[in-house]
UniProtKB/TrEMBL annotation:
Biased composition (Polar residues): 1-22, 30-45
Regions annotated as coiled coil: none
The name this protein goes by in its record: BTB domain-containing protein
Region (Disordered): 1-52, 271-305, 707-742
CDD domains documented for this protein: BACK
Biased composition, class Acidic residues, residue ranges: 727-742
Record domain BTB: where: 519-588
PANTHER family, sorted: ACYL-COA-BINDING DOMAIN-CONTAINING PROTEIN 5, FIBRONECTIN TYPE-III DOMAIN-CONTAINING PROTEIN
Source organism: Lepraria neglecta
Keywords: Kelch repeat, Repeat
Family matches, as InterPro entries: BTB/POZ_dom, Kelch-typ_b-propeller, SKP1/BTB/POZ_sf
PROSITE patterns: BTB (PS50097)
Length: 742
């Protein structure tokens, strides 16, 4: 340890005169020399900040006109902290509804909304998509006669008024339990159930919302009760059931950008539904014979609209395959792959990932419930949270809604109430709601997530090669350039990379001091620092609130135009580069790896910068690897990020044999090493060899505190000159999740 250094390992000494409180400038002549460099103190908001508790979503009870436990209703988040529910049927009375209900999330109150205009008929199994921020596009479904519908009605959220546009083109088959998504002023419809004998549709079509013209139908993937969304110019399909009535784990996607058929206005054609009008089906979903008489359109508020009574066609007309590239991935098994056959699943899109809420049900143990995410770019599953961290096993959830930003989700359901005979039953209301802050699980939100195919990503991927003319790229070109080249007017230094701190004394940024008067501190003339980083104080003032407060109070750095930050040079440089570009993506020079991002996480906590914290948690949780897992665990603890800390600890224990051999683990302080080892259960033990192979038959290949039976067998075979999976390297064996890609 350098003899010039004090307890923080930064070689600092106190000024000769003057106490100061935050916000009070140092104005005494002679107390500050132009040759001195001011040491950045901890943010006052950080000093007053207490260690936060671990995040766990809370269940809240609703009030007002709570709806019955409707089946196949539509539940849509419509902005302004409001969820709208429409239609559905009562699972006990078999009655089908066309009610509009609104849940005010601020006050947790349900309201039955009065609505006007061309009120649609009762229906279930329809879709309701938010359009233009203030309208719901309701399409298809089944009416009270079990007839499949193919009408489109529009509900104006501002006026509570229904309208039905004049539709042109080839109206597709009526259907229910399909999926729909709005993209590029088009309503895309995928799959569903249709026909006299009820078959699974494999088609995709769209309605042009500018001309109200239907496209033709193309063959895509046969599904119903599935989810669909748009990402990267592709339409994605996951979950649901196929023609064999089995739940599937296949992920399908279709490129919408490369084919003119999805960009041009559809041509007029003959309606598919007018060619197939055999009348009502004698089949009933509930064993009752439906009525055979059609209700005239417009005869009552509960009658179907003029274009909806149709279409229980029985023919399976051959269709051309959808234009554009089609891809499918089948996830067979893996340690993080959710089983579609267990539990009640809700799927939604957020931040470039498919979220799978595996909620409690009679077919799954509470410990098997979880929140998982499938990264669409990498095609990899990750478990974001275990079931006990989110769900109460005494509740059952029936619907899921997510906001347009992808930052919050809500599950609606009710508690299981014990009956008089001791058996469990359900209260017949959507009486409870659980709100989930998805950013607590490392999700950035759609506004901060780069989407493939976009011209100006919100978070640039590589500023070194980007040709974007955005403001961030222009500022990046001025970062850390000489004053002559960039007119920089401020200098920041950091700790040298080879400085070694005391094992038991953390860096200055990890201290949580009390909000008390402090003495301004300066580097000694002989202190070892990094090379100077040339920056512009205007950018620092605009992007770094703590710096702006200090500079405006004309404290010491106002006079010296120098500042020293007690963090490693690479971390400080990455932090300043973030201020210029709003990016912490991998950069060969300014943000090379996870070690720097872990340091940025600490700085985001010290200087109270929530957007930087969110980006750090997102990247660290997605790119966690063996080399950095221990460091990420330690830094997450310093920054009070309990979710990331638990995730990193689990990763360390799963890959324990490799983690303890990394340089990152060896750099931990003794105290941190002991804390990490104490994460293991008191009855835990390390297993290996023959015992590991035996246990390898259970749990999908990751057990104990690390390793897998297949990996042990591969290593042993390699040592003996044998060949097990020669086409896969060690990382491929570790990351393989049984994918089949077409």
């Amino acid at each position: 340890m350098n003899p010039q250094q004090t307890g923080t390992g930064s070689g600092l000494q106190q000024a000769n005169s003057g106490q100061f409180n935050f916000g009070q400038g140092i104005r005494t002549p002679g107390s500050v020399s132009s040759n001195n460099t001011y040491l950045m103190p901890t943010s006052p908001s950080k000093r007053a900040k207490m260690s936060k508790d671990s995040y766990k979503p809370k269940i809240a009870r609703t009030c007002g006109q709570r709806p019955a436990c409707l089946v196949n209703a539509s539940v849509t988040y419509c902005g302004n902290n409001q969820i709208y529910a429409f239609g559905g049927f009562d699972q006990y009375t078999d009655e089908v509804y066309n009610h509009v209900l609104r849940l005010e999330l601020d006050i947790l109150q349900w309201t039955l909304v009065d609505n006007y205009g061309d009120i649609p008929g009762v229906r279930m199994g329809h879709t309701a998509c938010l359009w233009q921020g203030s309208k719901l596009l309701v399409y298809g479904g089944e009416n009270e006669h079990r007839e499949y519908l193919s009408d489109l009605v529009i509900y104006d959220l501002k006026t509570s008024h229904w309208t039905q546009p004049e539709i042109r083109g080839s109206i597709p088959k009526g259907r229910a339990r399909h999926a729909a998504a709005v993209y590029d002023d088009k309503l895309f419809v995928v799959g569903g159930l249709a026909g006299t004998e009820t078959y699974t549709l494999d088609e995709i079509c769209y309605l042009d919302l500018k001309t109200w013209t239907w496209s033709r139908s193309w063959s895509f993937v046969p599904r119903f009760d599935h989810s669909t969304w748009i990402w990267g110019g592709r339409i994605w399909v996951f979950g649901g059931l196929g023609p064999d009535m089995e739940r599937t784990g296949e992920l399908w996607s279709l490129d919408l950008k490369s084919s003119p058929a999805f960009r041009s206005v559809p041509a007029f054609g003959v309606s598919e539904s007018t060619m197939e009008r055999p009348g009502p089906s004698p089949r009933s979903h509930f064993g009752q014979q439906p009525q055979t008489q059609h209700v005239p359109a417009g005869s009552s508020g509960y009658a179907a609209n003029s274009s909806s009574v149709q279409v229980r066609g029985s023919s399976l007309t051959a269709k051309p395959v959808a234009p554009g590239a089609i891809a499918s991935t089948k996830f067979i098994s893996g340690p993080n792959v959710p089983s579609p056959a267990q539990g009640t699943h809700f799927h939604c899109y957020s931040s470039g990932a498919l979220l799978d809420f595996v909620t409690p049900a009679g077919t799954i143990r509470p410990s098997e419930c979880n929140l998982s995410a499938l990264e669409l770019g990498a095609q990899q599953w990750q478990k974001l949270a275990e079931g006990p961290e989110i769900f109460d096993p005494s509740y059952r959830w029936h619907y899921c809604a997510i906001n347009e930003d992808g930052t919050k989700a809500w599950l609606l359901g009710c508690a299981m109430e014990p009956s008089e005979n001791g058996a469990a039953n359900f209260e017949e209301y959507l009486s409870d709601v659980i709100s989930l802050d998805l950013q607590e699980f490392g999700l950035l939100g759609n506004d901060l997530t780069w989407e493939p195919g976009t011209e100006k990503p919100k978070t640039p991927v590589n500023h070194a090669t980007s040709k974007s003319s955005s403001l961030g790229s222009n500022l990046a070109a001025m970062f850390d350039q000489s004053p002559e080249a960039s007119s920089s007017d401020f200098i920041i230094t950091a700790n040298k990379e080879d400085q070694i701190e005391d094992d038991d004394v953390p860096a200055a940024s990890s201290f949580t001091t009390i909000d008390a008067p402090q003495t301004p501190q300066f580097l000694s003339a002989s202190a070892r620092t990094s090379a100077p980083i040339h920056v512009h104080k205007l950018i620092l003032q605009a992007r770094w609130p703590h710096f702006n407060r200090m500079y405006n109070s004309q404290m010491s750095e106002f006079h010296t135009k120098k500042l020293h930050i007690q963090e490693p040079y690479t971390v400080v440089r990455a932090f300043l580069y973030y201020l210029y570009t709003d990016s912490i993506e991998r950069h060969p020079e300014y943000c090379p790896g996870l070690a720097e991002v872990a340091g940025l996480l600490v700085m985001s906590d010290v200087y109270d910068m929530p957007e930087l914290r969110l980006q750090c948690v997102h990247r660290l949780s997605r790119e966690l690897d063996v080399e950095h897992a221990a460091v990420v665990w330690e830094r997450a603890g310093t920054a009070n990020e309990e979710w990331l800390r638990r995730r990193a600890a689990t990763y360390c224990l799963t890959h324990w044999g490799r983690v303890v051999r990394t340089e990152g683990f060896k750099t931990l302080s003794r105290r941190s090493m002991i804390e990490l080892m104490e994460v293991i259960d008191v009855d835990g033990r390390v297993i290996g060899g023959e015992e590991l192979e035996v246990v390898g038959g259970f749990g999908g290949g990751k057990f104990g505190v690390g390793g897998s039976g297949s990996e042990a067998a591969r290593r042993r075979a390699t040592a003996q000159g044998g060949h097990v999976g020669d086409e896969m390297d060690e990382n491929e064996v570790q990351d393989d999740e049984g994918m089949e890609i077409n």
